[in-house]
Amino acid sequence: MNFLPQQALVMSPLLSFGVLLVVGALGGYLAHRWSWLPSITGFMLVGLLVGPSGLGLLDYDTLKEARILVDIALALILYRLGSSLDLRFIRRSPRIVFVAAIESAATFCAVFALCYFLGFSALIAAVIGAILISSSPAVLLHVAHEVGAKGPVTESAKTLVALNNLMSFLVFALVIPALLLHENASWQEVVLHPLYLLLGSGFLGLVIGLGLHFVISRTAKAGQYKLAMVVGALMFTLGLAQQLQLSMLFAPLIVGIVVRSVERDVVVSAMEFGSAFELFFIVLFVFAGASLHLAELIQYGPVILALVLTRSLVKLAAVSVSLRFALQPWRQSSATGLLLIPMAGLAIGLVQTASQLVPEQATVIAAVVLGAVTLFETLGPPMAAFAFGLAGEAAASTPVRKQSPWRLKHEVQVDVSALVVQKPEDVEVTEEATETVKRRFRLWPFAGKA
């Protein structure tokens, strides 16, 4: 009977990937049953349900083994974010960097001051402040695609989100020496580790980005392989970053920035990943929900609410006022500020990194940041949809149930041109003959009466 399994079933990475997808899809389906509940929130709720704080279907060891799936999801999201940041656009509009710097600095200072006032140590307050600088590219890209948003506000928001994610990582890298000192590391490690992360990850992203653009430009006629090349390059980036102990967050972001900035005739950054890209969204947010600690969420509930409120107001005010000084109308500047409020992708990755550097504080950092992510992902999608509408750039509107024409009380316009226009071979084609003929009909004799 050697052909039978010799041990009990265990939750392998492949099995956990299937669980994450299935329960995530069910959570998204349930979220669609209630129009007020975003699908991203549904993913996180079912993740909390099957995670260690819920049914325990996914325990901490399983989540640790499934980390590679989250790294792939974050790499794809950060690549798409980087590909929305065009350095040529920044050179033409340098004020956007000033706005991003003001917004990022104001967010960090406000969050740090609030956390320190609420009793956190200066080190943990700095870590949380650095992470909360980042905004969510996932929400921005997802909602913009859903409503068909296009225009200057949408492009400015994409650029600002890419810049503040970049600044969030840079500030987090500046906090790393303090984290290492807290762990009694040597001065060589304190000084050289952040430099190695920044310069090494940046160089890796630069080389792979240039190589990816070169290969795709030389194989432009075989467009069906473009997606495979991009995903393969990102997997190659993750593999090298992991072995070289570089940042698996910063390198994919740089790859996207380089590809967007060097492309000319052959455009790679505008490539759509298709519906398969949603699989990684599901994995990312179900994993984030499963990583939540329910006890800490309840314990730090007031802190999370205070952070969410403070961060939202500061980002909205900083972006709105800065763009208003740049002579942008209030509606557009306020809409841009609203689009920077959601937070998700990079924050989840930085929480994992911080947990490795200060494991004794991992529970507190994860509870506060992921709790804030939960609220931001609940409020973020409808807020983003409202912002696109406020800016006047939403092409898609909420469908309205059509009223039956037999219930209308007034006259309606009915196009009967197909019934009254003569055939082209029977008449001479003139401008009058090609005009659409409309006649007014009353559906019922009493339709015009009140």
Describe the structure.
- It is built from 20 helices and 2 strands.
- By secondary structure, the chain is an all-alpha fold.
- The protein folds into 2 domains: 13-391, Na+/H+ antiporter like fold, CATH 1.20.1530; 405-441, no CATH class.
- The model is unreliable at 397-450 (pLDDT under 50).
Features:
disordered C terminus, mainly alpha, two-stranded antiparallel ribbon, single chain, 2 domains, 20 helices, 450 residues, Na+/H+ antiporter like fold
Beta fraction: under 5%
CATH architecture of the largest domain: Up-down Bundle
Provide the number of structural domains: 2
- Class from secondary-structure proportions: mainly alpha
Question: What would CATH call the class of the largest domain?
Answer: Mainly Alpha
Radius of gyration: 26 Å
Strand-helix topology:
Elements: H1 13-33, H2 39-50, H3 60-65, H4 67-82, H5 87-92, H6 95-117, H7 122-131, H8 137-147, H9 152-182, H10 187-218, H11 226-243, H12 250-262, H13 277-290, H14 294-299, H15 301-325, H16 330-339, H17 345-357, H18 362-391, E1 412-415, H19 417-420, H20 431-434, E2 438-441
Antiparallel strand pairs: 1-2
Helix pairs in contact: 1-2, 1-13, 2-13, 4-11, 4-12, 4-13, 6-7, 6-9, 6-15, 7-9, 8-9, 8-18, 9-10, 9-16, 10-11, 10-12, 15-16, 15-18, 16-18, 17-18
Brief rundown of the structure:
The chain is built from 20 helices and two strands. The protein is mostly helical and 450 residues long.
